[in-house]
């Protein structure tokens, strides 16, 4: 289906060559300041035809200017569905004439035709990466909410093109910024490696070919407790979101496949308390998620993107009737998708985290409204009534007596205050 998320939910619409593409986002909290400029930043990082990137991306040039159609008033969200629209402008349907008869090898033409018996052949229809505009627009709103509410920061970068790699341990995960990533058009934060990656993409393009790549991502300041075991574990939903991006072929979190070659004694993330009194782990092979639930450490994951299917190089294949033929694809295509995939990965990650935050907020606030009995085992800071569960290590049951006492005293005072308010209301009602 074309919808994703439960509490923070996006539905995208549109094909590559129809009037335009966009989305409806439902569940955005009310009273948040929001303008088109907030959304445009990520759309402009995604758009084809970005200044300076012509030699490594498609020649299609779209402004991708977003229009907010609904869900805001005087620059603030209403809490009602937000509709957003981007017009398709730079279309060349005639480039796709031949491809309407010949399914592009490893593209979506064959499967769409078989599934629906009819398809928008021009420009790849809905399988085109233009569909991701709706996700990016919705995710840009999710990012804003996450930043303002929890201080969440999401940064992704290109860590591989062909066989050129920048290992994650060469990147300062605590500080890497989008500004650093955007210093080079290929979006790899190491300029020397970025240059090599650029040469690799240009060489593929010169051969009328394409090349694959890897995107890494870090999500910082993630609240503890996000993720819904058992089937909606945080990494499972992240994998779902990421693998729904066109051209993805792999997802790994934390140690990923490398973890399979390690021993438990090397791989276990030891707990300790940092200078701010926050429970942390000394290593982060878990990638910030344990048991499907965020543990407050940065979430770190990587994704493999295949070489785009549409290439000018002659390929021996078959047309829709099964007759052998040779396809030399025309049109304007990305020789490598990873530089443009960066904002898509970030905004999809934001959609997942925002949805999970709203889910956890619902649980936390409903728990906080339970009747007064206080169980000595019920003192998780996230459940203590204020919903700012920031991971501060202050109220777990196995803590020393003093911390537990202060947590219980705080809760007792809150309940006494609540009782006082209720008595006042009762008195009022009696009058
Ligand atoms: C940012 C981005 C740009 C893309 N550009 C192209 C392209 O120019 N040509 C192409 O064949 N595929 C491109 N793709 C990939 C196709 O959309 C994708 O391969 C196709 O829908 C088939 O889906 P699948 O690869 O997930 O099986 C792009 C993907 C992304 C994320």
Classify the secondary structure makeup into a structural class.
alpha+beta
Shape: globular
Percentage of residues in helical conformation: 25-40%
Query: Helix count, per DSSP?
Result: 9
The CATH topology name of the largest domain reads Chorismate synthase, AroC fold
Q: Nearest-angstrom radius of gyration?
A: 25 Å
CATH architectural arrangement of the largest domain:
4-Layer Sandwich
Major β-sheet profile: 5 strands, antiparallel
How far from one another are the termini? 56 Å
H-E order: EEEHEEEEHHEEHHEHEHEEEEEEEHH
Strand percentage lies at: 15-25%
Q: Report the CATH superfamily of the largest domain.
A: Chorismate synthase AroC
pLDDT < 50 runs, ≥5 residues: 381-399
Based on the model shown, name its key terms:
Chorismate synthase, AroC fold; 2 domains; 5-stranded antiparallel beta sheet; alpha+beta; binds flavin mononucleotide; Chorismate synthase; 431 residues; Chorismate_synth_AroC_sf; EC 4.2.3.5
